[in-house]
Amino acid sequence: MSLIEQLKFDTNGLIPAITRDAATGEVLMMAFMNAAAVEQTLATGRVHYYSRSRRKLWMKGETSGHVQLVREIRFDCDADCLLISVAQQGAACHTGHHSCFYRTWEETGAQVQGEKTSDPLAAYARQDILDALYHVIQERRQNPSEKSYVASLYAKGLDKILGKIGEEATETAVAGKGGDPEQVVYEAADLFFHTLVLLGYYDLPPERIYAELRRRFGLSGIAEKASRAQ
């Protein structure tokens, strides 16, 4: 039996969908889906919803680029609500916040709103800046321009990308030896950036790295290495 056959849509043919960050468990947003939205989500691996106000199917991030890559889909015991775990590219909320649930309600009745900034990157969690940067890298790769450094790396091929990673790794090690914390940060950022370029070459989103680190979490390094040798 397919997923759609198991779900219970309401009289309007809709089902609520709660979307959360696969890496942190944070609830990002809540929207509705119809059968077509579920089908497109399953077919593309990118979350689609149904807009009740516009009465049309839409893909999250279709204009902003802040797409949601599906990692897991669950449904509740009554099969009338979905829980979708995603790798969120950029911000989930149209306000620029990572989650739509950025406001809290105190007992005094005062509504407290998280600080909003004109810089959308300020709303990102630590790992989300890597996701956002990866999205930009992929955009530069798919729509190259003469002024794009990323596009020039991809144009020169894999060996050039690998060479830059080796160069940045060496410079990070030299900075570490030099004892200047600010220089270590600067060089490590360069290393992270060029590693993301390599991931983009193989169409590997940062979530794959997060997942591997989660798998290793709690394991001793010796035990983890031994498991790879088997």
Key attributes of the depicted protein:
alpha+beta; elongated; 2 domains; Helix Hairpins; 230 residues; EC 3.5.4.19; two-stranded antiparallel ribbon; 8 helices; Ubiquitin-like (UB roll); 44% helix; four-stranded mixed β-sheet
Can you summarize the main beta sheet?
4 strands, mixed
Number of domains: 2
| First and last CA, distance | 37 Å
Helix proportion range: 40-55%
Q: CATH homologous superfamily of the largest domain, by name?
A: Phosphoribosyl-AMP cyclohydrolase
Count of alpha/pi helices: 8
Low-confidence stretches: 115-126
* Helix/strand class: alpha+beta
Rg measurement, Å: 21 Å
Strand order of the largest sheet: 2-1-6-5
The fraction of residues assigned to DSSP E strands is 15-25%
Q: Based on CA inertia axes, which overall geometry fits?
A: elongated
Write the CATH architecture name of the largest domain: Roll
Beta strand count: 8
- The CATH class designation of the largest domain is Alpha Beta
Mean pLDDT score:
87
Organism: Geoalkalibacter halelectricus
Keywords: Amino-acid biosynthesis, ATP-binding, Cytoplasm, Histidine biosynthesis, Hydrolase, Multifunctional enzyme, Nucleotide-binding
Domain Phosphoribosyl-AMP cyclohydrolase: 29-102
InterPro entries: His_synth_HisIE (IPR023019), HisE (IPR008179), PRA-CH (IPR026660), PRib-ATP_PPHydrolase-like (IPR021130), PRib_AMP_CycHydrolase_dom (IPR002496), PRib_AMP_CycHydrolase_sf (IPR038019)
